[in-house]
Specification:
Layout: H1 18-33, H2 40-47, H3 53-58, H4 61-68, H5 75-83, H6 90-102, H7 108-120, H8 122-144, H9 148-167, H10 171-174, H11 178-194
Helix pairs in contact: 1-2, 1-4, 1-8, 5-6, 5-8, 6-11, 7-8, 8-9, 9-11
Length: 196
């Protein structure tokens, strides 16, 4: 290829840093523009790669965001697992799934680090907040068969528990066993769901 000729699409020649380049570009653009205003094409342009490589590595914009924010689990998979079953036990399944990730050996410290980073980094917090509003709350509403208002309350309850138990470490929350947390918040979440 001669100098000045257009770059051919596809993978770069030699050792590839493409995935890392895409991630760095995504972190920059999600932080600056938020989830909604960042396109996969803009990320590819920023990374200097063909746009087809973004879904090749990350599947979707949602997958790219999860990877860019270094979320150790896919929240959409969590929601799908929690909502798969009878509606009368949905609150219990939601808090069980949620605490399982926050207290898991592989995921717990990463989730706590993510929460701390959002508290300390306004652009990260804004990106995650927009993602939760435009992607996660509607997914909870759709998967659980509840209104957006009910989904908002349920998600806020879960993140309230996370903040008090895992970030701040308030003794009334932190000193409970996981089974106690499930026993207390499962019924509360279920009341919110049943009132819908």
């Amino acid at each position: 290829m001669t100098e000045g000729s257009p770059r051919r699409p596809g993978r770069r020649a030699g050792d590839s840093t493409t995935r890392d380049d895409i991630l760095r570009a995504a972190q920059k653009l999600f932080g600056r523009n938020g989830f909604k205003n960042t396109s996969m094409r803009a990320v590819a342009t920023e990374a200097g790669v063909d746009v087809a490589l973004v879904p090749y590595y990350f599947g979707s914009k949602h997958g790219l965001f999860v990877a860019a924010l270094e979320v150790p689990v896919d929240p959409a998979e969590q929601v799908r697992r929690a909502t798969d079953g009878p509606r009368d036990r949905l609150g219990e399944r939601m808090i069980t799934e949620f605490t399982g990730v926050w207290e898991g050996a592989q995921t717990g410290s990463a989730m706590q680090g993510l929460l701390r980073s959002m508290v300390n980094d306004e652009s990260r917090a804004n990106s995650f907040g927009e993602f939760a509003s435009t992607e996660m709350v509607p997914l909870v509403a759709d998967s659980a068969g509840v209104s957006l208002e009910t989904a908002r309350v349920a998600v806020s309850m879960l993140f309230g528990v996370a903040t008090m138990r895992y970030l701040i470490g308030v003794p009334l929350f932190a000193n409970l066993t996981r089974d106690q947390v499930i026993g207390l918040w499962g019924p509360q979440l279920q009341r919110v769901i049943d009132a819908d």
